[in-house]
Structures are given as structure tokens and as C-alpha cells.
Design goal:
Blueprint (H helix, E strand, L loop, with lengths): L1 E4 L4 E4 L15 E6 L5 E6 L2 E5 L4 E6 L4 H9 L1 E6 L5 H9 L7 H4 L5 E2 L6 E2 L5 E12 L4 E12 L20
Antiparallel strand pairs: 1-2, 3-4, 3-7, 5-6, 6-11, 7-10, 8-9, 10-11
């Protein structure tokens, strides 16, 4: 079946595409967390999005078998760290290794800072860090979607205007 392309007024053929992760590209994120015992971790998360404007909230999807899942569930908080291309090697390593097997944060020399509003670390080498408190969750099949109320947003100074608005066009996102 052909569809009229509004731009060129030509017909473009369509075929069925894969349904898994069809809303791409979206910026890559690392979610950092702290367990009740004080242990820190970070993991690559494929499912992350805004889900409310007022109050501001984001949602992250975590597979229950992931090492960080219990930490996030018990602590009630997490940090979404937006990743730029300079952090690609670290992102790939954190996304392909589990803290069950090694101290991956130490292996990659990941710098951590305490959050201001939540008891979870931020990754200061990422351009934007979003501190969140969990207000709800829903199991959606393979993932549990944690809805986090945004408590504080850190951004590299050069990205913000005088009112604190972030110019995302300046970030060379890892897609």
C-alpha cells in the first residue's frame, strides 16, 4: 500500500516494521541509584520519558531481574542522567556489565556526587541529572515502569539561560 508523502507529493511504500522500541531515536540515559545499605549503582535504561508536565514527572522502565531494581524499589528514588557522546564508552560498559559480577563503577572510574533532594548519586560527568522520588509504578510486561516526581535538575552551567532553561540543542546526545 502506498502513502502520499506530504513533503514531495510522491507515494512512499510502507512495510511492517519491528514493534520493539519503535519510538527511536531518544537520548540514552543512565539511571543511578543507592541501596538502603549505601551501595551505589548505575545502569543503562532503554525506556525513559516525560509523563507529566504539572507536577513534572518522568518514567523509567527497569527489568525486575536487574541488579538495581531492588535498590530503586526499596529506596523510592532514582536519578536520570542524560548521556552525551563523550560518555559513550562508559555508557556501553555500564549497560553491558552487572554489579553482581564486578564493581563496574570503579572499573570505569565513574565519578559520583550525592543528590541534593534524593538519596541517590548523580553522575556529574553527564550534562543533565534529574533527581526523582517514586510516586507510582506499574508492571507493563517485561519492565516495571517507575513514575518519578522530579525533585531537582542539575545541568552544566553553559547549557542554561538566565532563567535556568536548558538548551538541549547544545548537548551532543548519544542516540
Amino acid at each position: 500500500m502506498g502513502f502520499l508523502d506530504g513533503k514531495n507529493q510522491t507515494y512512499t511504500q510502507k512495510k511492517q516494521a519491528l514493534m520493539k522500541s519503535c519510538l527511536q531515536p531518544s537520548p540514552k540515559v543512565l539511571v543511578s541509584c543507592r541501596g538502603l545499605d549505601g551501595e551505589n549503582n548505575a545502569l543503562a535504561v532503554a525506556y525513559c520519558c516525560n509523563c507529566s508536565f504539572d507536577p513534572p514527572m518522568v518514567m523509567v522502565g527497569i527489568v525486575p531481574s536487574r541488579y538495581s531494581y531492588k535498590m530503586i524499589k526499596e529506596s523510592g528514588c532514582f536519578v536520570v542522567n542524560l548521556v552525551n557522546k563523550n560518555y559513550q564508552e562508559t555508557f556501553e560498559y555500564l549497560g553491558s556489565h552487572s554489579k553482581r559480577d564486578e564493581d563496574k563503577l570503579t572499573a570505569m572510574h565513574v565519578r559520583l556526587q550525592d543528590g541534593i533532594k534524593v538519596n541517590a548519586p548523580i553522575l556529574p560527568d553527564c550534562p543533565v541529572n534529574i533527581e526523582c522520588s517514586i510516586v507510582d509504578s506499574i508492571v507493563t510486561g517485561s519492565h516495571e515502569m517507575f513514575v518519578g516526581k522530579i525533585e531537582y535538575v542539575h545541568a552544566h552551567q553553559e547549557l542554561c539561560d538566565s532563567e535556568g532553561k536548558i538548551d538541549f540543542s547544545q548537548i551532543n546526545f548519544l542516540l
